[in-house]
Model the fold of this input.
Amino acid sequence: MHQAIIGRALNGERAALAELVRDCERVVFALVRRYAATPEDAADLAQRTFLNAFEALGRTFGGRPAEGDAPLRAWLLRIALNLAKNHARDAQRWARAPLGEVDALADPSMTPEAAARDAELKARARRAVLRLPRRQREVLTLRVDAELPFAEIAQVLGITENNAKVQFHLALKRLRALAAEEEEKR
Done:
């Protein structure tokens, strides 16, 4: 499917680019959301991912469409991951004053107390994930947020499938330890 889209896009067909965005936007947004402080930042990162991809499409695939869907998707997710990591690094460098953490996907039927608990849980989870070593965080994000199989995670990150599985296992183990630490502090 992506082979045909690439060919049409390289021939200047705008509809092919829109089709590629529709096909991959959910997985790209899920991936970058883990690294972004707000849904708006994540939407910006997703948009930048597609813009960077469209600019590089001809250089990367230059008339030779990828074999199957995996290479294009892996390439696109690598762009998203690099942008997201750079964004997270820059955000740490330049601290921002939060204006209020209201998630756009919050349930309107939630009580204010439940919404506050939910926001606190999400913030704690985000902080715990950010404390993971880089490779574990990448594998966890691709597996949980992007819902990728280990084979595709391995392709995106340039590691073996077995290494991806090990890193995922280690990430879960570390997150459990961090959660236990957090509970002890309470």
In short: The helical segments are 2-10, 14-33, 39-61, 70-93, 112-130, 134-145, 150-157, 161-185. The chain has two domains: 1-94, 107-186. Confidence is low (pLDDT under 50) at residues 96-105.
